[in-house]
Amino acid sequence: QVRLVESGGGLVQAGGSLRLSCAASGRTFSAYAMGWFRQAPGKEREFVATISTSGGSSDYANSVKGRFTISRDNAKNTVYLQMNSLKPEDTAVYYCNAHIFTNDYWGQGTQVTVSS
User: Within 36-112, where are the H helices?
Assistant: First the structure.
């Protein structure tokens, strides 16, 4: 099992940037594929980005491609989400996800608010 703690959310103006971090407990962080999801008020949770165990491959939702970058540091048990050119529609609670086999683990979420 892995415990995930997100940080780095906040209030930013449109066009600005934020970097989210997700710190994971445990000694097998590198065995998990990691991802970021988000949930806006009144909407379902949606996929944002994912990164492979080694960090060698990643994938993004079309809505964030070219603006967001996911990365990981297996030595620090941390995954990041660099968010640039933020838009008001990026406003949501952002959740970190760890996936292995058929198991998914979630953090508590961090609020990102983008003002216009």
Answer: none
66-88 residue pLDDT tens = 999 999 999 999 999 999 999 99
Q: Helix (H, G, I), strand (E, B), or coil: what is residue 23?
A: strand
Nearest to 7 by CA among 110, 86, 97, 95: 110
User: Cα 95 to chain center, whole Å?
Assistant: 6
Q: What percent of the chain has pLDDT over 90?
A: 97
Q: How far apart are CA 48 and CA 88, in angstroms?
A: 15
Contacts of 101 (CB under 8 A, 6+ apart): none
User: Residue 4 and residue 44: Cα distance in Å, rounded?
Assistant: 21
Query: 29: helix, coil or strand?
Result: helix
Dihedral in degrees, nearest 10, Cα atoms 93, 100, 54, 21? 20
